[in-house]
Amino acid sequence: MNFDPRFSGRQFASVGTRPIRPDGVDKVTGRARYGADFNMAGQLVGRILRSPHAHAVIKSIDTSKAEKLAGVKAVITAKDLPDLTDGDAAMYDILDNCMARKKALYDGHAVAAVAAIDARIARQALKLIEVEYEVLPHVTDVDEAAHHHAPLINDQVFTEGLEEKPAKPSNVTKRTQFGHGDVHAGFAKADFIVERSFKTEQTHQGYIEPHACVASVNPDGTADLWVCTQGHFVYRQHCAQLLGMEASKLRVTSSEIGGGFGGKTHVWAEPVALALSRKAGRPVKLVMTRDEVFRASGPTSATSIDVKIGASKDGTITAAEATLRYSCGPYAGSWAEIGAMTAFACYKLENVKTVGYEVLVNRPKTAAYRAPSAPMAAFAVESAVDELAHELGMDAVDFRIKNAAQEGTRASYGPVYGPIGIGPTLEAVKHHPHMKAPLKANQGRGMACGFWFNFGGQTCTDLNIGMDGSVSLAVGTVDVGGSRASLSLVAAEELGIDYSHVKAIVADTSSLGYNDMTDGSRGTFSSSMATISAARNAIKILRERAAQTWDIPVEDVHWEKGHAIAKGEKYGNLSPLSLKEIAAASGKTGGPIAGHSELVADGAGVSFATHICDVEVDPETGSTRVIRYTVVQDAGKAVHPTYVEGQYQGGAAQGIGWALNEEYIYGKDGRLQNAGFLDYRIPVCSDLPMIDTQILEIPNPNHPYGVRGVGETSIVPPLAAIANAVSNAVGVRMTHIPMSPPRILAALDAEREG
Amino acid sequence: MAGVAVSTTINGDAVEYLCQPDETLLEVLRDRLGLTGAKEGCGTGDCGACSVIVDGRLVCSCLVLGAEAEGRKVETIEGMAHGDQLHPLQQKFLEHAALQCGICTPGFLIAAKDLLAKNPSPTEEEIRFGLAGNLCRCTGYDKIVRAVQDAAEVMKGA
């Protein structure tokens, strides 16, 4: 029976309730095992030597002194990770990022690694490795790097996406364009036009758990990897390819994950740990320090964005245009492309054009950060939209409602929308009491909208029914924030049993088929679809067993509320058989009962949010406090509403940090100056107010329960909402994120000086 | 390097260990004693994930030397529940979903326990400043603050 993923309205018994998560007790008692909490017999400590230079040729590496140090069991360089990528440019970049081959491309780029019997000896050994560098000119700023005079990071890069292949190499790897209509004609019809340029600085996901793994390569070529990751199947593929192994020989177990937000979607240290283990012949534990996490994992892009929006007097947007430059680190990426796709996705536009430029810089390789690339584009667009509303003399919410995309709108990035939530979130905000609350001196209110695609992807799930009638659910999407609870609810719902009888786990790569990683807000969306499918397959078997027991045709057996029911008056004397009863007899009726599911979860419903924010700005210090914050977002269907609220609140809090304080600060020497939580300050408890949430449920037509991903959209509006609030509070348009006290004071000074 | 012999009390039990003079209490707890509930998020005292209580004082165990535990009483997350009876803070963290990834949770629970021991009826502001030494990147702190408020009510009634 083919699985039908279409939405069908139903009354829920389990979905929508708020039980305690199955992994909760382990996490409040300290028993949950994260990346660094696992150990193996004979385990060594791995450490990585990193380049102090932003851009340098590696002329030679002498490891002989380190190798002679007592207690050192292996030293590796790029030579120990030979190029097996076979022309796959993206994999080559991953390899080069794991261990620099010819050039160090950023401060923190790995150049060598050691494995020793303890951390102290490993640290000593790093100091004995002699690397001869030829320091090259570097560039860390996105606009400077895009300039044709900038130092070239890779002389093999010629900008793609231009009409003609350029004659000279460039740091701009790719140009992309989206849109429809004729923006020139649209601007000609406009009565008001706002045109502005914006910048955002680079931020880090800031997960509290540093990257950590234990790698063990056996003499027979098999290997185990314990690792904190958002996608252990992807890590297996990448590590196996880079190490020259068969994927099935490498068993990857995902530990509990201490935050990822997109930052644990790429391998960095794991291939190095495996190479060290292979060379040393012993297990190797490799844990990044916080300094390494900042310098050498994958922060988000720094951006520079120009926006132009025009509207007629009646408030209709006639044309919208944006040019977006996103830093990628030293390797090609598609970050500006995503920004260009999302920039105007909230609006119904006749004429729209966005152009993205991917820019190489001497900074760590950009990685995904929660709705990657969308918050910066939304900051620029939603700031300009607010300004345009002001020029038109229209309320900022009404102006957005008038131009909001709706079902049937052709999105600026191409597709035609199905049922979507942008209009309803705006209407909810318009009528929210927050919008009417009075403000005091130096306070301002802002609002902004945000969009995220959401993703589905390859998903595989096993559902096994024990002889006692309890259910083991094995999923392959890493649980980053409560999905084992939501997926247990879904299994309970579909089978018609109580949540307490379901236990969900995340299976390792040898126990389950391939799963894409937990990204794109897909964890609950895709694995719930696979869980529903697996449960329906199990129910089919349960019905067959009941039919067999009763000796009636299976077509006459229905499944209702956890019981097989014989339908038809002729079966009037047959009592329903519970799942538990059928399971207890399974040994005599055909053996274990299970449901499996392998699918590509298409149809992830797009997601929209609108946020409201009140700030108070101290005009003397430029310091800003968020004093009230409200998130309104469409969840499709909130499976576990408490964890949906948690996603809304967490994304908002990260956005607040990004908007007001967080940024990578590079010195003229190209070195990161704030690689720690003291100087890269993320919001603490006393920085924030309660974050109010309102969940809207506009069912996703492509999911049986109407579920949409909820994890990422919440970080898209905050930069703009807070910038609009600050601009309203101080009377000056803020165009540079983060709006740290010096930037706000500078903006106020500039305004005073006219 | 000669080890330092340390006799201390951890979660009520007498414990003896040898450690290096420059080894932190966090390293001793995690790597020598197998008490991995305290986490290293930064190693510089900025994140609070390694919070423990030493002689009634809340500290980052990454900033305390293992040798400094000599003769003291150390409380860690592993000692917070009594048998199968969770501490009210642990129970309320579960009920309020005050954790997502959970890596910061042991540190928050220890810090909140210390806070409520010193101030059984904290205001929201006192909770927020009392927990300002602990970083959480998932929750936005909203549900953590509510869980501590709720636990304080329960503990007052106990």
Question: Could you name the key traits of this structure?
Answer:
heterodimer, A: about 750 residues, alpha+beta, Aldehyde Oxidoreductase, domain 4, Aldehyde Oxidoreductase, domain 3, 3 domains, six-stranded mixed sheet, B: about 160 residues, Ubiquitin-like (UB roll), DNA polymerase, domain 1, 2 domains
Notes on the protein architecture:
The complex is a heterodimer of chains A (754) and B (158). By secondary structure, chain A is an alpha+beta fold. Chain A has three domains: 24-32 and 456-601, Aldehyde Oxidoreductase, domain 4; 35-136 and 210-257 and 264-296, Alpha-Beta Complex (Aldehyde Oxidoreductase, domain 3), CATH 3.90.1170; 303-454 and 605-753, Aldehyde oxidase/xanthine dehydrogenase, molybdopterin binding domain (Aldehyde Oxidoreductase, domain 4). Helix content of chain A is 28%, strand content 24%. In chain A, the strands form six sheets. Chain A has a seven-stranded mixed sheet with strand order 3-5-1-12-9-10-11, sandwiched between helices. Chain A has a six-stranded mixed sheet with strand order 7-15-14-13-8-27, with helices on both faces. A four-stranded mixed sheet of chain A has the order 16-24-25-26, sandwiched between helices. In chain A, helix 10 (335-342) packs parallel to helix 11 (374-392), helix 14 (483-495) packs parallel to helix 15 and helix 18 (641-660) packs across helix 19. The N and C termini of chain A lie far apart (71 Å). The mean pLDDT of chain A is 97. Chain B has 158 residues and is an alpha+beta fold. Chain B folds into two domains: 4-77, Beta-grasp domain (Ubiquitin-like (UB roll), Roll); 88-157, Orthogonal Bundle (DNA polymerase, domain 1), CATH 1.10.150. Helix content of chain B is 34%, strand content 16%. Chain B contains five helices and five strands. In chain B, strands 2-1-5-3-4 form a five-stranded mixed sheet, with helices on both faces. In chain B, helix 2 crosses helix 5. In chain B, 59% of the residues are buried. The interface between A and B is large, with 57 and 56 residues. Chain B: Residues 4-80 form the 2Fe-2S ferredoxin-type domain. Chain B: This is (2Fe-2S)-binding protein. Chain B: Pfam families: Fer2, Fer2_2. Chain B: It comes from Mesorhizobium australafricanum. Chain B: Keywords: 2Fe-2S, Iron, Iron-sulfur, Metal-binding, Oxidoreductase.
